[in-house]
Amino acid sequence: MAWVTDRSRPARSLGFGGGAWIAASLLVAGLVLIPVLALLWQAAQGSEGLWSHLAQHVLPHALGQTAILMGGVGVLTAVIGTSAAWLVTAHDFPGRRVLEWALLLPLAVPTYIVAYAYLDLLHPLGPFQTLVRAVLGYDSPRQFRLPDIRSMTGAILLLSLVLYPYVYLPTRAMFMTQAANLVEVARTLGTSRRQVFGRVALPLARPAIAVGVSLALMETLNDIGASEFLGVRSLTISVYTTWVTRSDLPGAAQIALAMLLLVVALVSLERWARRRQRYSVSGQRARSFAREPLPRAQGLAALALGFLPVFFGFLLPALYLAAEAWKRFQFAGLSDRLLAEARNTFVLSALATVAVLACGLVVAYAARVFPQKGMQLVHRAASIGYAMPGTILALGILIASAGLDRWIGQAAGALFGVDPGLVLIGSGLALGYAYLARFLAISIGSVEAGLTRIPRSYDQSARTLGQGVTGMLRHVHLPLSRPALAAAGLLVFVDCMKELPATLLLRPLNFETLATHLYGEAARGTYEEAAIAAWAIVLVGILPVILLARVGPGASRG
């Protein structure tokens, strides 16, 4: 196959280096695919007689729990996200501008931190139930207690309150870019303003809603901390316990493959739901339809209603964590252990971010310079890691890394008579590899978005001046893509800090991050010990939300 930079100019005219970019992008895509191949290989080894037990007693229950959880979260996130998007897009009321970006704030809080906060907040001896009993005149939890939040209903509610922004963000963008003439035509045909939502806006927004719901469901499938804390035995928890508790790696790999099939089915269903969705506007700039001013009383009611998911999904747990962190700081200060964990988290996330940005730049730039079908396939292969739950990815990397560590040990023993130990797993390289494969799609997408803003004429001018593939990147694309690279770096860094499943499975011995510290303390029930770590993660998580609020659609409009 002949690689070309456009439909007429051969790649050799770009000078030395074109083949190296292709090879590098193939290498990156191969690194992302290795965990899947490792899972397939391990699953084929059999599980020493335990698979029949897993298939009969573990997998059906885990599949049922996962299906119920994903169904509830899918419906609730669609309702909350779509309603919130229509509220701030179609209506004008006091506080709308603040609410428009505040609805993104739950994205700053990982699901396991929200579960951790509410478990402490709503504990029978916690502040909320203590206050309720005092108001009602009861003395102890034996006399009165609220239903336990450790339930499927609690998990669905809490996960939905955190994940609805995945639906809100694309749906609001779709509502804001719909042409005003569509709404005006519907009004002239006798459709009331309230009916416009159901008959015009909602059908046109279904692709955006489908994308948002699918992202929320993938995050639900990826979750391990919140589900375990809330007593839901999902497929993710089954993979973890099968490997850690039963020491059955092939069985865990087989369950992980079942999860992977579920992810593939989910992505296929989302694409099937959008197969006939087509929407186009005229070449002229589309006008957003005018917002309907609400009377003061209705406006305040709309503000209060729209603020509810922000309050329960971000503000209440964040304020509670801040108060608990301050009390803990006043009592014991910052321990050396916590400072070491913060340093581990920062250094690991920073190094992983650099690697993810570099590999994402390689794939996105190669796809631009060589826009052929083959490179598009490489592009897709390199991006599949984000669609895979962290547990699946970590398990595949664990299998591959353990095999490579054994080979390195055998080679070192034969050649030098020494045993280097677990080179990849013991040094943290396997964990960095997991971050690379998991978040590479974020880097590729952001860099690609930045490159598309650079006209192709710049490439042609650079080639006329004698620049090759690498020269064009250094002198043209990198300087113009710095904002996109910075945004991608921020998103990847924060995601690395928050990542829990892969970190739990692949961290070296006696190596803790803020996320694993929080998980360990919550698992032991010592919630107050993890408040500072949880608050630190929330503070860092706010940064990409600020970025989304600044660059999102309508960020600078009234």
Automatic annotation (TrEMBL):
Localization of this protein: Cell inner membrane; Cell membrane
Kinase keyword on record: no
PANTHER family: FE(3+)-TRANSPORT SYSTEM PERMEASE PROTEIN FBPB 2 (PTHR43357:SF3), INNER MEMBRANE ABC TRANSPORTER PERMEASE PROTEIN YDCV (PTHR43357)
GO cellular component terms attached to this protein's record: plasma membrane
Topological category with respect to the lipid bilayer: Multi-pass membrane protein
BP GO terms, sorted: transmembrane transport
UniProt keyword list: Cell inner membrane, Cell membrane, Membrane, Transmembrane, Transmembrane helix, Transport
Family designation: Belongs to the binding-protein-dependent transport system permease family.
Name of the protein: Iron(III) transport system permease protein
Native source organism of the sequence: Paracoccus chinensis
Ranges of residues in domain ABC transmembrane type-1: 63-268, 342-549
UniProt-listed InterPro entries: MetI-like, MetI-like_sf
Signal peptide stretch: none
Segments crossing the lipid bilayer: 21-43, 63-89, 101-119, 149-169, 196-218, 251-269, 300-326, 346-370, 382-402, 414-436, 532-552
